Amino acid sequence: MEILTLLNSIQPLSPGLAHHLAEILKEKQFKKKDHLLRERQISTNVYFIEEGLVRAFYINEKGEELTNWFMKEGDVIFSVASFLEQAPSHEYITALEDCSVYYISYVQLQAIYKEFPEFNYHGRVLTEKYYRLSLQRESFIKRTSSLERYQRLLEHEPYLLARAALQDIATYLGMSPEMLSKVRANSIPSK
Question: pTM for the complete prediction?
Fold first, then answer.
């Protein structure tokens, strides 16, 4: 399981913890367009993506879908506020491709933290990583031009252009689909 490799890269798991995780992690398959979470549901699972791409988004007051995140192989995904508070979610998480995931529930995670205090370190490192990424993305969206945002996507997440709809990429970059088309046209080098 790649999830165990990821966790061991943060800090080696004790044999007891590694065995426990291997026993309780459940595998699940999602087909393209399946929802891992819907708005108003409580996010009760933490998913580790073995294969596939998912999108987290919300629907604004105009009925438009606005993308918060794309997560791919090797990423952990859940609705943060909903999961931590065990309250209804304000977002959707949807498979953009057929996906294979491993997951544990909120209740199982809390039990692991109590039974294996060492795992609190893994949880903290992952939480800090995604919090930093969230702050960086928010700052980047607010402080950069559409062209700079698109260039960053090309540099750091080029796989999205082949795996996600341009409409979803546009909202992820904080621009309209029309603006994304203009930026893409202007960023193609002339011959």
Answer: 0.89
